[in-house]
Design a protein that fits this description.
Radius of gyration: 15 Å
Strand content: over 45%
Largest sheet: 6 strands, mixed
Distance between the termini: 27 Å
Oligomer: single chain
Number of helices: 1
Shape: globular
Number of strands: 14
CATH topology: Jelly Rolls
CATH class: Mainly Beta
CATH superfamily: Ureidoglycolate hydrolase
Number of domains: 1
Helix content: under 10%
CATH architecture: Sandwich
Order of helices and strands: EEHEEEEEEEEEEEE
């Protein structure tokens, strides 16, 4: 049996998150950021979709048991209401599976939006401390290529306390 992996979160910054995706910071001066292309897809028939997600508050530590990736599409998350978010990402191992030994955990502040590059293994986002609403933008064509899911060999505990 594989031992549980424990991760401490780190703040979401563009430099730390760059191998996995990108971060947009809300401007503090009331101006604008962007425009930034947030959805890329390798399939010409795929359409950008939007999903609203209400996330219940979670306590630390959070157990991650399943991951997913969108091999053809980037995925973008935009805070709409509530607090911070826990996100967990994984490089891809040589065999194509999530590399759990090099998993990273981040906390996105309510003033941040972020996107995963196509093909990045990630856990579902989770709300920290208070219910949170996000919008998820993802390109889909209705085929099994839209999402690939995997159960992890052992749970990963994510601690943000």
């Amino acid at each position: 049996m594989t031992a549980t992996i424990r991760l401490r979160t780190e703040p979401l910054t563009q430099a730390a998150f760059a191998p996995f995706g990108f971060v947009m910071e809300a401007p503090a001066d009331g101006m604008r950021t962007g425009p930034l292309p947030v959805i890329a897809d390798t399939r010409p028939a795929a359409k950008v979709t939007a999903t609203l997600i209400d996330l219940p508050a979670q306590r630390s530590p959070r157990a991650v048991r399943q991951v997913e990736r969108h091999h053809h599409s980037s995925q973008f998350f935009l805070h709409l209401a509530g607090g911070g978010l826990s996100l967990v990402v994984f490089p891809t191992a040589a065999d194509g599976q999530p590399d759990t030994a090099h998993a990273r955990a981040f906390v996105a502040a309510p003033c941040q939006a972020f996107g995963y590059h196509p093909g990045i293994w990630h856990a579902g986002v989770a709300a920290l401390g208070e219910p949170t609403r996000v919008a998820s933008l993802l390109s889909r064509d209705g085929t099994p290529g839209d999402v690939e899911e995997r159960a992890l060999p052992a749970a990963i505990e994510v601690d943000w306390s």
